[in-house]
Amino acid sequence: MAVWSIVFKSKLEGAARLDAEYYKPFYLQISSSLEQKNYVELGSIAWISDGDHAVLPELFDSGKRYLRAKDLKNFRIDNSDPIYVSDDYFRTIKRSHIQPHDILLSIMGTIGNIAIVPESFDILTANRAIAIIRIEEDSKFDPYFVAAYLESKIGIALRERESQGGIQQRINLEGLKRLKIPFIPYSLQAEIRKQVFVALSRYRDSENIYAEAEALLLHELGLDNLDLSTQKSYVANFSETVESDRFDAEYFKPKYRKTIQAISKSRLSIKDVAQLTKRRFVPLESQIFNYIEIGNLSGNGHVETEPIIGEDAPSRAQWIVRPGDVITSTVRPIRRLTALIEPKQDGYVCSSGFAVLKPMKIPAEILLVYLRLPIVCEILDLYTTASMYPAISTNELLKIPIILPKVEVQKEIVERVIASRKASKDAEKILDQAKQKVE
Questions:
Q1: pTM of the predicted model, to two decimals?
Q2: Hey, is 389 helix, strand or coil?
Q3: Which DSSP string do the residues of 249-285 spell out, in sequence order?
């Protein structure tokens, strides 16, 4: 494969890019191949905008959903950590309104996260790290095909070619509009659309089966019948504040006191059922390793990774993980970022922002579901310190109470978690087939 290329001045594409990176032989080969076919530029078949340019709008617990790049996962919108803006603010940013069937693509920082908005979503919005691509109805291009194309090897290469910047990569909207989209028979586009639909259906199956596992655990622990409604006022005895060494009102909310009382009945804590492991990682020059950062965890307890060469290893790449480990983020635990390490991820490296737990007296799947229960994550959040970067210490994490369900219920939960993960893998496989069909 050629490692250099010569480009005539007449072939410079609009003179917008004169850097050698843009004219790599691989990129030129793909561009030449597309030019031999019928193609259009993305900007000619789609309305393209980006999200809200406010540095940080005021956020609320309800209102209009406000997406960030990390909310886009494998053609889906991740609902594990939603944020919202007010309806009034939403009305002021009409240019950034997002509708069903829009393609969403992250174009700043981590480039290439993609989602397609399902029919079930109301109109929502996003920040400027997301491009909004709305395929015109009379364009003879199906948005699901275009999304699969953008995620194919060809689409990824074209996106990479248009990216710019140093530490923080980005794709300008003008560069996005230049992306070449080949004309494909609509019958083939329909096949690809069907595959994407099937994959998204399997993802929903995965989420529903996992929700069943979670509901089983909540019921068995008696947490589903607790009155966790908000109370405007409540009282704590002085002796309780001294015993807990806490004087903040948040800690003594009735919902938390009731939950802690319920999960403390067994007098077990996390340290009684799992061991904190610290397998230290030492990066080696020229050695590639798979790195798990906090942002690589999905909302369904799965891990995604990125390969990094030893000399570029971040200082936080510290712990080696093994199959069956459960890793949980000690930073902002309210986000439910806990995952189970699979056999294929043996020897991967995770950030020091994770606690790596090796289950001993409990199936790994039970610990996974327990640490992802929303109310348990709220309890973990009670023990965080600092405001800008709130984190719970591993010592406090290990002291969190836990109650174990009956063995037969544990088996049911484990079966559902396994089935949920299988459905998710099925979805990934079907999406890969759709992308390969595009290629």
A1: 0.82
A2: coil
A3: GGGG-HHHHHHHHHHTTT-EEHHHHEEE---B----T
